[in-house]
Amino acid sequence: MNREWIKNRNLYFIAAPILLGLWTLYTGLVREPAAAKKQTDFEAEYKISQAALFNILKLDPERLSNKEKKDRGSDFDYSTAMDRLAREYSIPANQYEVTSKKAAPKEGKLVQTADIKIKNVDIVKLTGFLSRMLTLWPDLECTELTLTRMKGAKDSWDTSFKLTYYF
Fold first, then answer.
1. Model confidence, pTM
2. Residues 107-135: pLDDT tens digits?
3. Spatial separation of the C-alpha atoms in residues 57 and 80, rounded to whole Å
């Protein structure tokens, strides 16, 4: 096969403007309208989310002040919180285990950690449980999360996670 035409300089003087023209057409006719549509969709979604946010703040204004209420955290207890939310999410007591450590000072705050293991739980329950727990106690952080799929089951997981609470 003869490849002499690749070495011809005139080919590049012709091909480069054609490719740049095609790229300009593609950008102007395809990419620009798609970007403009994404921008208008984003702005519409932003307005809807702002309305929902203001509605939440109107119905539950305490959410803004939960982070500043440090005295509220003194009554936090891992086992009580776990029992309450496990009942709420239909997780039987024989499927979870809570091991909490004693509170210790760290970086000017009291910090208490706990290891929690939940056996045979589906993803929907687990994510709802964790989301609710972290929402109820804003000073609580999930620092580690491990999921292990149970063999022979589609949506059944053994999970362990580490929580840290800042007083």
1. 0.51
2. 778 888 889 898 988 888 888 888 888 88
3. 28
